[in-house]
Amino acid sequence: MSSTSENVDDRLSMLPEDILSRILSLMPTKYVVRTSVLSKRWRYTWTSVTNLDFDYTRRSPNMVTLKFVDGNEEKFTKFVDRVLKFCKTSHVKSFRLHISSYGVSQSSILNWIDNAVRLNVHELDVCVIQSELPLSLFTCKTLTDLRLEPSECDLRGWEFPSMIYLPCLKTLDIFLCDNPLAIQGCCPVLKSLSLDVSCYVEQDFILNIPTLKPLNLLCISIYNDDNRKIILRLPKLEYLFVDGELCSLFEMEDVSSLCGRSVRLGFDTVMSGSSPTSRHSSVVRSGDRHAKHGAPRTSPR
After folding, report:
1. For residues 209 and 193, is the Cβ–Cβ distance under 8 A?
2. How high does pLDDT run on average in the chain?
3. What letters, b where the CB count within 10 A reaches 16 and e where it falls short, cover 15-43?
4. 216 near 191, Cβ under 8 Å?
5. Digit-coded pLDDT (tens) for 283-292
6. Which residues contact 121 (CB under 8 A, 6 or more apart)?
């Protein structure tokens, strides 16, 4: 090792443990663990990081996520198991798990998410080829931000259990959800919601969340039924972005805070039915001054 490298290593080693941990928490976990070979001082420093980032994805040249198997799944699984085994922090600030390899077992994925919950995770970002989620996730008392996305090569939606209670959850992003109404009444401080929902059931979609401020809604339906409704009861709503194929009746029953705020329709928004109802027209008019086609999915928080 050159004298310059030694001096840099010495300066870093002189930093307090909590500062080193913060620095390492900004890096992908696979690089953080590699610092253990720098010196004896660094051997176990990585075990105190509060951000864990595990990525095992492949992308095409146009950045589409690919489903794959490359023979290194067992190595990746052992790596994640080892990191979680030696993790010393009692509170994980951020846990990111992105996997597009179908060679990683579902049992391992469930176990890793369950471990994140036991480590009192605050922010959880999961993008995997999935079939289910651990029940412990839906009663996590420390979770403040949750993002669930099936890998782009997996078209199945998430299914939520009947028992859900997330007392600290403030931000929820769900891509493809088979039973989105299960979250209602279960997140008492929820402020920001993004839903990609597949409404393959013949019933009204009623969203009643008193604390919600921004809402991004993408709805895909196979029914062309004029009697089905999307009903919003969101008294504190300040921002609404709607995209997808909607039911022919779109009612905003209680959105008093939205007056003078922003309502945006996505470029691909389709109102089902041969002709929009008066309620459709009222929705479009309410956001007419602010509407911007192709508005981004993510809203200001």
Report:
1. yes
2. 77
3. eeeeebbbebbebebeebbebeeeeeebe
4. no
5. 333 333 233 3
6. 92, 93, 94, 95, 140, 142, 143
